[in-house]
Design a protein that fits this description.
The chain is an alpha/beta fold. The chain folds into two domains: 430 residues, Rossmann fold, CATH 3.40.50.12780; 115 residues, GMP Synthetase, Chain A, domain 3. Helix content is 30%, strand content 24%. It is built from 18 helices and 30 strands. A hairpin with a 5-residue loop joins strand 2 and strand 3. The structure holds adenosine-5'-triphosphate and magnesium ion. Magnesium ion binds next to loops.
Amino acid sequence: MKVQIYKKTKDYFKKPPNLVDYEKTNRTFSWKDAQQEIEYVDGKLNAAYNAIDRNAVNFRKNKIALYWEGDEEKKLRFTFSDLAKLSSRFANLLHNFDVGIGDRVFFFLPRVPELYYGFLGAVKRGSIAGTMFSAFGPQAIEDRLGNSSAKLVVTNSELLPRVLKVLKNLPELTNILLVDSKLDRKEGHAHVLSLENELSKQSDQYEARLMDPEDPAFMLYTSGTTGKPKGVIHAHRSILHEHMSAKWVLDLREEDVYWCTADPGWVTGIAYEILGSWSNGASSVVYSGRFDPDIWYRIIQDYGVNVWYTAPTAIRMLAAAKGNPKEKYDFSSLRHLASVGEPLNPEPIRWGIKTFGLPFHDNWWQTETGGILIANYPALDIKLGSMGKPLPGITAGIVDDSGKELGPNQEGNLAIKPGWPSMMKTIWRRPNKYKSYFLKGWYISGDRAFTDKDGYFWFIGRADDVIKTGGERVGPFEVESALVEHPSIIEAGVIGKPDPLRGEIIKAFVTLKPGIKPTEKLKEEIQSFIKHHLAGHAYPREIEFKDNLPKTRSGKIMRRMLKAQELGLPIGDTSTLEKF
Ligand code: ATP
Ligand code: MG
């Protein structure tokens, strides 16, 4: 397919970006030099101290750190000093509840302020903070709280019954704190207490515990797109990576209002809504209400959002909504747009340019990598559909299945040289799983990709999703990207379907724009459209129309589920599946 380039001219930049010269920085950068951006004391540090407390004692003390908005336009504001005090209360609470260093504390909450300062308080204390997405059901909760042996959980009255349902299988869980109740009671072996009451008894002063850079700070379960979610442990050292990548990739500046739409149930909401963004001193917007294009646009306009970090599914949903938002809303505050979580097809980037006058900058990383590793930077031109280039300080490569590095334009495993600061410390209670990520001095991501001659990285698909048809390998991403170029299609998921003749054939599941009729004629038209866009062998021999595609709750298309359904196979772990 022909590559389209978005060139950045001089007028693109009102001010130079934080990372002015990518190539030069990439040549000269060292993580050791960058350590001066973070406060270490005798080689020790605390990730949450660097995100919040140090900004509560410097010139940012009274700056708004969090603009919070819930349903029905309920609004709250917190300064850095407010968050430092509230998180200190929570750290003192943990101390008084005998939750110690390395003990697991989980937050099972929607995006309420308590989640943000509670998480910071747990990290300040040196406990291991974890999150669970608020839509999880009892089994998903039992899996995560059981695997992590959490001692304390913070949740709300609406979610509590799901925890109680599995409480008997969680003997270590002895305290459950509710953000919205004043009544204390006992349920089985656990105390159910009011968070507000307990916090009011604590001092708002707490000196963040200095930790070894290797000590665990937080844990997160992966999205479960490919199988059972893994409990990934991250160390305090990760803050250095999150800080530098937020500065360079999200281009956060002192005067910025920043909006990350991710939920802290997933890694993006931790690394770039709590840690790296606040360590850079950004004022962040958190919107906890339901998805509605009009509300999202109003938030950008009313808060004067400058930097917006979102995900392909959200962009496609906005693009599919009726009307032209440009006519109704003022987007002039926006300066930089970024996207993560799934491959970003060229079509939504073009829609972004039309609607906001700016391209979305795709970047790639994983729960395991703890921070952005490959990105499109404000200072570089964008090749539409490419993930961009490695972050300075990161050595990324494409290697074959024996660990041998491959040259440009060769498909292989996307791999990274280990040792970057936010690399996972381990997989909780699965040391062999952790070891299995490494091969001949490389971290193997599980994704397939290639590089071009200019050093840009291109995503092909997850290793398990690559299709072998008629002796050729086809990445689902390129077929899906071509499909969503078709004017009738919103979203597409592509799988390989076993075929006696060709090994596999390509089968596409597509959702249509509102009002479009799903006819046989349309299928043929789509097929010939793809033949024109891609090589002949890469067109889907089968197309099925669907109202929705199965997705994880973090918005990723679950191709393994499409495949299992197609072949009548067991569908495996569905704890992260969105209602479907
Ligand atoms: P599991 O490991 O449990 O199957 P998961 O891999 O979806 O779940 P995450 O760590 O949340 O869990 O997601 C990381 C994966 O998301 C990457 O390995 C990649 O497949 C995909 N991804 C993230 N960002 C991008 C991107 N910019 N382009 C393409 N793929 C991306
Ligand atoms: Mg994964």
